[in-house]
Amino acid sequence: MIGDHSPDRLRPQAHGRVVVSFGTIWGTIKRTMRLRAEIKPVTALKTGAARLLRAVNETRRPVVITQSGEPKGVLLDFETYEELREATILLKLIAQGEMDVRARRTLSQDEVFRTVRARLP
């Protein structure tokens, strides 16, 4: 398995940070978020949506939106959102591949090339 993707890595640590790691096709990005600074009540979103969006796009740091003191959503810049989607898709493909290997649903390289060559005109 690549990296540690356990839920414990997403929980606040004793020093008040959450460590989040995710990758893209072009490399790995590791970030440390200070959650206290990025937690905003839903009223801040209602009254200052443009300001919050501008800040998120400039800093690329997510903002946790709370309602009645409980986290209910996360505001992300679009580029970070796309990177997270790509990383999620990649992790799902890796997990599927690992399940195929465990279930012995694999072919040797020679078998794959033989099959491909047979299908070529």
Summary, kept brief:
The chain is an alpha+beta fold and 121 residues long. It is 45% helix and 25% strand. It is elongated.
Describe this protein's structure:
By secondary structure, the chain is of the alpha+beta class. A 3-stranded mixed β-sheet has the order 3-4-5, covered by helices on one side. A two-stranded antiparallel ribbon has the order 1-2. Strand 3, helix 1 and strand 4 form a beta-alpha-beta unit. It is elongated. The N terminus is likely disordered.
Helical percentage: 40-55%
Percent strand equals 15-25%
Supply the number of structural domains: 1
Q: Name the CATH superfamily classification.
A: YefM-like domain
The third-level CATH topology is: YefM-like fold
Rg from alpha-carbon coordinates: 21 Å
Spell out the helices and strands N to C: EEEHEEHH
CATH architecture group name: 3-Layer(aba) Sandwich
In spatial order, strands of the major sheet run: 3-4-5
Average pLDDT works out at 79
Number of helices: 3
What shape does the CA trace take?
elongated
CATH class: Alpha Beta
Low-confidence stretches: 1-33
| Largest sheet descriptor | 3 strands, mixed
Ends distance: 38 Å
Backbone structural class: alpha+beta
